[in-house]
Design brief:
14 helices; Integrase_recombinase_N; hpI Integrase, Chain A; Site-specific integrase; 46% helix; elongated; DNA-binding; 9% strand; DNA polymerase, domain 1; mainly alpha; 396 residues; Integrase-like_cat_sf; 3 domains; three-stranded antiparallel beta sheet
C-alpha cells in the first residue's frame, strides 16, 4: 500500500530559509485542486512575514476550477451569465423560446442587482434579500428570477466554480392563494354576443373581421385547449364525420424573437397530446370555418392569415381585448376559456376528467390553477344529517 496522500487543498510542513540576497523564503508542498502536489513559496523580509505571505498565496488557490472554463470565484456575475447562456445553447435540451425567456428574465430581473458582484460574494443572505424585495413588487417576477438564478448558480457548482448553491437555502416565496377565474354561462353568452356584433361588421372600429375570432373562442371553450394549441390545428386534426366529432391536439404555435412564427409539432407537454370529443357548438364553429377555408390540404392550418401563415397568439389576444373593450367587458383572456371549461367539467363529473381534458398529469395542478372553487356544498348533506339526527326520526 502506498503512503496516504494529504487531502486536496492542504499543504505539508512549512519550511523557512534564506535567499542569496538575505531575504527569507517560506515554502510548502500544496495538493492542488487537480490532485497534483506542487511546491509553493513566498518571499519577505522576515520569517514571519514570509509565512504570512505564503498563507495568503495558498488561500487564493481555488479548489473549484472547471477545466474548460475561465470562471473562478472572483469572476464577475455577468461572466457567469454569459457562460450559463452558452452552456444552455450547447446542451440543446431547451427550446429556443424557453432559452430566450430565461435570458430575458436573467438580464432584466437578476443581472442589474448582481452585476457589480463577484461570484464568491453572491451568498444566501444576498439572494434571499433580493428575492424578497422583488416579491414585494411582483410575486411573478420574483418566481421567474428565482428559477434563472438557481440554474446559473447551479451550473457554477456543477463546474466546480462554487462549492455550493446559495439558492438551496433561501426562504420560500409566499403569496396569498389566487383562486382561478372562470366565466359563468351568462358571461360566456355576453362574450359571444360582443364577438358576433363585431364580426357582423356593425362595429366600424378596428381591422375588418375575417370571421375567425368567434370560431377560435368556441373551440377553446369546447376543448379547454390553450390558444396556441387551437391555432395549431390542421385539417387532418379535425374529424367532423365521426359521432361525436373530434379534434386532435398535437401541436402549438411558437413565436420566437427574430424569426417567423411557426407551428411546433408537439404541444406544451407529452400528456397534452390528446384527442378531444367536440361539443356541438365547437363542431359547428369548425364546420363553418372549414367551409370558409374551402379546399385545403391535410397539413394546412384551420386558422391562418390571409397569406396562409400561422396566426400569432399575441395578435389574437390583442384582437379579443379590442372587441371586448368595445362592449365594455373587462378581464377576459383566452386562458379564461380553458379554466371555464375545466370548471364546468369538474362541477359535473369531477376533477379527474377535468385534468384529462386539460392534458394535466396531476389533478392537483388542475385544482390549483384551472378550477374555480364553488362555495356551495352539495345540499345532500342536509338530507343525510336529517336521517342521522332529526327529532322526528324513528326511535331505535
Amino acid at each position: 500500500m502506498g503512503r496516504p496522500r494529504t487531502p486536496i487543498g492542504t499543504c505539508g510542513k512549512v519550511h523557512v530559509g534564506t535567499t542569496d540576497s538575505g531575504r527569507f523564503v517560506a515554502s510548502a508542498r500544496y495538493r492542488d485542486w487537480d490532485g497534483a502536489s506542487r511546491q509553493v513559496s513566498a518571499t519577505a523580509d522576515s520569517p514571519a512575514s514570509a509565512e504570512r505571505a505564503l498563507k495568503a498565496k495558498l488561500s487564493k488557490r481555488s479548489l473549484f476550477q472547471p477545466g474548460p472554463s475561465e470562471l473562478t470565484p472572483d469572476s464577475g456575475f455577468p461572466a457567469l451569465v454569459d457562460y450559463w447562456l452558452a452552456d444552455m445553447e450547447l446542451e440543446g435540451r431547451l427550446s429556443l423560446t424557453t432559452m430566450q425567456l430565461y435570458e430575458r428574465n436573467m438580464r432584466g430581473l437578476v443581472t442589474p442587482a448582481f452585476e457589480n458582484l463577484t461570484l464568491r460574494e453572491v451568498g444566501v443572505a444576498r439572494c434571499d434579500w433580493f428575492l424578497k424585495g422583488l416579491a414585494r413588487e411582483s410575486h411573478s417576477k420574483a418566481k421567474q428570477a428565482r428559477v434563472v438564478l438557481r440554474l446559473a448558480l447551479g451550473l457554477a457548482v456543477r463546474h466546480e466554480v462554487l462549492p455550493r448553491n446559495p439558492m438551496d437555502h433561501v426562504s420560500r416565496l409566499h403569496r396569498e392563494p389566487n383562486l382561478p377565474e372562470a366565466l359563468t354561462p351568462k358571461e360566456v353568452d355576453a362574450v359571444r354576443a360582443a364577438v358576433r356584433h363585431w364580426e357582423s361588421g356593425l362595429s366600424k372600429s378596428g381591422p375588418r373581421p375575417d370571421g375567425q375570432l368567434g370560431a377560435i373562442i368556441e373551440v377553446m371553450l369546447g376543448t379547454s385547449a390553450r390558444i396556441g394549441e387551437v391555432l395549431a390545428l390542421r385539417r387532418r386534426d379535425v374529424d367532423l364525420a365521426s359521432s361525436p366529432a373530434t379534434t386532435r391536439i398535437a401541436g402549438t404555435i411558437v413565436s420566437r424573437r427574430g424569426v417567423p412564427t411557426i407551428r411546433q409539432d408537439h404541444p406544451k407537454t407529452a400528456r397534452s397530446r390528446r384527442v378531444v370529443a367536440l361539443p356541438s357548438f365547437s363542431a359547428e364553429a369548425l364546420r363553418s370555418r372549414l367551409a370558409q377555408r374551402g379546399r385545403i390540404g391535410d397539413d394546412d392550418l384551420v386558422f391562418a392569415t390571409r397569406d396562409e401563415t400561422p396566426l400569432t397568439t399575441n395578435n389574437v389576444r390583442r384582437q379579443l381585448r379590442h372587441v371586448l373593450d368595445l362592449a365594455g367587458i373587462e378581464g377576459v383572456t383566452p386562458h379564461m376559456f380553458r379554466r371555464t371549461a375545466a370548471t364546468a367539467i369538474n362541477e359535473r363529473a369531477g376533477v379527474e376528467l377535468a385534468a384529462a381534458l386539460l392534458g394535466h398529469t396531476d389533478p392537483r395542478i388542475t385544482l390549483q390553477h384551472c378550477i374555480r372553487r364553488s362555495e356551495a356544498v352539495d345540499p345532500i348533506t342536509a338530507t343525510l344529517l336529517d336521517h342521522a339526527f332529526s327529532k322526528d326520526r324513528p326511535s331505535r
